Amino acid sequence: MRLSDGFGRTFKYLRLSVTEACNFKCSYCLPDGYNKCAGPSPLSLDELRRAATAFSELGLSKIRLTGGEPTIRKDFDEIAHTIAALPGVDKLALTTNGYRLRDRAQGWRDAGISAINVSLDSLNPNTFHQVTGHDRCREVLEGIDAAFDAGFESVKVNAVYLKGINDQEIDAYLTLAKNRPLSVRFIELMETGDHPDYFRRHHIAASTISDKLEHEGWTQKLKAADAGPANEYVHPDYQGSIGLIAPYSKDFCKSCNRLRFSSMGNLHLCLFGNFGVPMRQYLQSDDQIKELKEALWRAVARKTAGHQLGLGLTGQTSNLSSIGG
Ligand code: SAM
Ligand code: SF4
Questions:
Q1: Which of 51, 63, 73, 280 is 20 to 30 A from 94, comparing alpha carbons?
Q2: Given a cut of 60, is residue 19 above it in pLDDT?
Q3: pTM
Q4: Where are the domains of the chain?
Q5: Which residues line ligand 1 (CB under 6 A)?
Q6: Going by C-beta distance under 8 Å and a sequence separation of 6 or more, which residues neighbour residue 16?
């Protein structure tokens, strides 16, 4: 039984948020920092295990741990270890702001995480501080070195491309990919409910980067049929690659192969949807996994063709830390 929707898309990839909380204050995400509201606590280790078991049995063999900042959870290593050990999970990945990476890279690799995406929105310590509220640029760069030393199969750097903030740094990012197999992914800023003005001030189309890359001899790799939304560029003089994530581009949603599960136990069919489908009631005992799979199956059949960001409709997503990006 594989999960598929009414548009012929099948789903192999789950983004599993383990917390909404974060220690950073990224200007495009949580500019005032994370504000804990009264309400249920995030999914426990057992609830996360049951969710991951159901999804993996439905064919989602790649799982990415995300958040908020997933690594602020005290039981993060245990979560990683437990999910990586599930029989249907072929690949466990992590997206992190990198604040613990320098010290924990080897431990997380040993726990079974094989791919890591590190957010790094500037290579300039002052700009990094301005964007994140933290003076940790060098620490995160050292964390990336530690990830290579620890033997991760894939190391990627995510940078949200921001007009007037880091748009002069493309060449510096390219040098990161020069002599090692690192992929830099430029993410076009997405409008979220909390920050329409920020979006108007700082959004630039990803096509400005693809134009520059093509002018400088980079070529776009052919996409595999089951590839995700990034367009990948390679260059003969570079060991690494550059990925562009352009959510406003035509056909972006056609290749959607992912589902999202929030740390509150809601299934999100689209990052910019109007609702999450509550599933926590099916996560309370191991005996409910069959029931959970049936509920997931019914919900996914209702997935719509695509988001309507181009029309300024951001859905209920107030910021991406609440769902996991
Ligand atoms: N805290 C972790 C991190 O920053 O890597 C994981 C969660 S974060 C929500 C996941 C990704 O979403 C990060 O790469 C972040 O830069 C990106 N992101 C957050 N808000 C965004 C926005 N409005 N537009 C584009 N990307 C965004
Ligand atoms: Fe935290 Fe990631 Fe959002 Fe930055 S982008 S505030 S690190 S959740």
A1: 280
A2: yes
A3: 0.94
A4: 13-156+250-322
A5: 22, 28-29, 66-67, 69, 95-97, 119, 158, 160, 187, 189-190, 192, 320-321, 324-325
A6: 48, 51, 52, 55, 63, 64, 65, 66, 83, 261, 324
